[in-house]
């Protein structure tokens, strides 16, 4: 692992290295938010309405306690962004994990067994591909709101978001996995273990899967960026995380309502964080993809 | 060719059938229609009678067939939220969205094609480097952020353009247009720019990579050897051939633009289909949601099929390959 990392950093062009470092930094800051944030923005005990809408520290009227200023409820914006990034990254990772699990399993089965399972899986994938991603995600959110009374709650909102985002991303996993499984299935080592009489699930998961996991991991980086972006869009549109437990998209939406009265910081800083994160992950992912799998190129 | 045509049509039908099945499921099982339509103190026998008269006790396939029949005759149900005919609501909102998408498409072609040509012909020029790095940012910055920034700059700070609504529109009977009034045209600028940004970068990158590919082919080298003028090589040979995938992508983008207008319309409070759908999602207005789904899926499938068929017409190599 360590030697792979060393090899990777040696061949990385400087701009990719910068992007990877920025991305890693933001993700680490998000993971450790509870330990590094000055304040807990989800607990109403820790902030004061009297401090609301304070500008960033370096602007006139700013308070040295609040580096990036405060939002409309008096929350420290830096803490809210750290916690919000944490929520965004967790939902994004959850969606990617869900999509990868479903897509890879279906792709393996479709590619290895063929027949009706393949036909059904791939036709369903076609149907999903022929609908715009944002529409499907909003439909899932809409149906969930109809079925679950407290869909805006802290418990349900992330689950609904993960489902809404994951439903779009599994298709790409299924197609990639199916294509590589078909290639691997005709290789000699697979024929050998088949003759040895190993059970089929063991061949699939212990022998074929490890050999095709590379491209799957590479598309996962790019999908993570896409998932974070979709989460932000849904939260911005008002069907994502609730304001008392905000993700980056929710913060941007809240800030948007105040932006026109000159309170620009509530919307600007979360937006910059979001763009930096997505850009960093995209640049790193693009580079990894071109480097390890030229076949996947071009689907931008 | 005929085989390809048939298989494409079959695929289109399959997708539409799946989408109508999804709509039917939403319509029928998300929320109980009887619960929604009867009084709170209605007795069990009254409810059963209503259930019977609505045909909710029939076999599911019969109900689905009836649902298809209703859609085919243009009856999309009544909106839960404002008790109006959904088909009427959609007809009323469609012009706003279609005008927005039309302007965005034209804008993305007008900017994307020259920018792509520039980047392909002068890959190391200062201007094309600027355009290229700009396009990477353009892909990574989400629509709602660019929209907000445009509003902050052009509406709040400079006060040049309106930040919401369609401005003054002219009613042509079956169509309301914002093209004919100054305020209507001004209102179109920011939303269509926001909507166009993504497909603009897409078209630019596509033209660039296609042109670079084509400029390194043998026939271009041969044309250069013949001493043909470079404008002829660049525009008659390279650009003309590079336009092929652009046809596809532009076509497919029209569908995505209609869907992506949901975000743009929400930012700019543009009274189109996207805003209608977004309100339906927030207020759980199932009939409006299903109608919008059917509409967008229909547009998407028709465009996809047409693009594939045009492609086969333009490029004979694809005719025999099938799907």
TrEMBL record, chain B:
ABC transmembrane type-1 domain mapped to chain residues: 94-307
A GO cellular-component term linked to this record: plasma membrane
Membrane topology per record: Multi-pass membrane protein
Subcellular location field: Cell membrane
UniProt keyword list: Cell membrane, Membrane, Transmembrane, Transmembrane helix, Transport
Gene3D superfamilies, alphabetized: MetI-like
UniProt keyword Electron transport, yes or no: no
Main location: membrane
Family membership noted in the UniProt record: Belongs to the binding-protein-dependent transport system permease family.
Protein name: ABC transporter permease
Protein source organism: Marinibacterium profundimaris
